[in-house]
């Protein structure tokens, strides 16, 4: 199958949505998959039937099918609320946008659960399963953020190291920036870092653009 969209969410994200969302029904269970297909009507109907059969065989707790614009919008409305739901918990959402091979998605969620148990910080995972780009959110109390910065960085060390070991990348959408500068050398080989520096030198030979910020 080649879906137009494929989104997932974990238990913490769903629980947060149950507390926050009032305009959409959060499905039961501890995992959520949103799958969208498009194409010609006959091919879409055929794929829909085959996918329904497969999902039921995998013991899906519930299955909701939308085939009108309004019904599809209801399903997407829930997906759009996930980030807001996490913010509404009162915790600070430290959002990382890592990417792993699709075959590692289950491993990633399990690894996040183990990090949560080790660190004591709730960790929420949701995002774009189709390309392996998942938002891993470390949830920290406002009063603890600066106090626990070293511990949080240690959790990120573990997360990024595991992602790279799976041949993933530490950012899929947000970029390296200052926040991930610490992990830049691990994330890219020396040749790639050299290209960055060559481009920086060519475009900013006098070093006057964002001096001392990054590359």
Largest pleated sheet: 5 strands, antiparallel
Number of helices: 7
**Radius of gyration over all CA atoms, rounded:** 20 Å
Query: Roughly what percent helix?
Result: 40-55%
In the predicted model, the low-confidence regions spanning at least 5 consecutive residues are: none
Number of strands: 5
* Structural classification: alpha+beta
Mean pLDDT over the residues = 92
Major β-sheet strand ordering: 2-1-4-5-3
Distance between the termini: 41 Å
Describe this entry's structure for a reader.
- The chain contains seven helices and five strands.
- The longest helix is centred in the middle third of the chain and has 19 residues, at 69-87.
- It has a five-stranded antiparallel β-sheet with strand order 2-1-4-5-3, sandwiched between helices.
- With 215 residues, the protein is of the alpha+beta class.
- A hairpin with a 4-residue loop joins strand 4 (123-128) and strand 5.
